[in-house]
Amino acid sequence: MPIDTSAKIFVAGHRGLVGSAVVRKLHQLGCTNLILRTHSDLDLTNQSAVESFFADEKPQYVILAAAKVGGIHANNTYPADFITINLQIQTNVIVSSFNHKVQKLLFLGSSCIYPKFAPQPIPENALLTAPLEPTNEWYAIAKIAGIKMCQAYRLQHNFDAISAMPTNLYGTNDNFHPENSHVLPALLRRFHEAKVNNLDKVIVWGTGSPLREFLHVDDLADAVVFLLENYSDLEHVNVGSGKEVSIKELAELVKEVVGFKGELVWDSTKPDGTPRKLMDTSKLVGLGWTPKISLRDGLVDTYKWYLENYGKQ
């Protein structure tokens, strides 16, 4: 059922990579009644504040994209923060959504919910079948609890709560921090800086052989709206591009998009990480959704945004 463009829609985490893309998509569709709050306006870890907010605003739809996120170093350094803050945010928003009769809630997880050695491509039913990747298990366990909470409220109260699990995302509003950004924005920044500084080479860790999947965040936003309109069931849904690219191919494509003319050197003494990580998206494809943005087009778009916002990084 199409979303009523006059409905009150609360996008939690609207300034992040995912939340901001969802807001752009909803604006494109003509939604006029978005409810947006910054962290300083509304602390989602504060139960009474969240409850008061829902009592006052009474949103009809909730998209839960707010989370405490970070890389391996942050997860290892602050495990208590990662599990506690994410559990608090989810619990407060899901419970208040139910209490105040939200029509539908969509909870966004992460592909790190799956076991470290999950079958490839990773199907939805791989969840909880084996141990997690130890470096981000605190975050993953919080996200798994969010999925299970949505399922529990559906089972016990018939509350229309669904969950979506995106693959590796990139695009507008990505994090280009030199130390703690993900592989794609990190490569983009390094090639750009090498180009600007007229360096003759860029050294990249590993052999370039691992395979990864990337989805432009605007495609994810499109899938979020599609699921809100077309899906209502217990199991979470994987959202990915369904396409794999080696880190070597990715680096060469980023080099080309940025226009770096120097050499690309692989430091094979450095670790490669997981050899393959691909989501099985056949469930979502079966529902009728496929991504629209190619990796090349997405990279061109992301680099353009990076250049426009480079001074603010």
From TrEMBL:
Under InterPro entries, the record lists: Epimerase_deHydtase, GDP_fucose/colitose_synth, NAD(P)-bd_dom_sf
Tell me the domain of life: Eukaryota
| Enzymatic reactions | GDP-beta-L-fucose + NADP(+) = GDP-4-dehydro-alpha-D-rhamnose + NADPH + H(+)
Extract the GO molecular function terms from the UniProt entry.
Answer: GDP-L-fucose synthase activity; isomerase activity
Start and end residues of each NAD-dependent epimerase/dehydratase domain: 9-240
Name the Pfam families on file.
Answer: Epimerase (PF01370)
Return the EC number: 1.1.1.271
Q: What is this protein called?
A: GDP-L-fucose synthase
Lineage start:
Eukaryota, Viridiplantae, Streptophyta, Embryophyta, Tracheophyta
Entry keyword set? Isomerase, Multifunctional enzyme, NADP, Oxidoreductase
Q: Does the keyword RNA-binding apply?
A: no
Tell me which family the UniProt entry assigns to this protein: Belongs to the NAD(P)-dependent epimerase/dehydratase family. Fucose synthase subfamily.
Which biological pathway?
Nucleotide-sugar biosynthesis; GDP-L-fucose biosynthesis via de novo pathway; GDP-L-fucose from GDP-alpha-D-mannose: step 2/2
Entry coiled-coil feature ranges: none
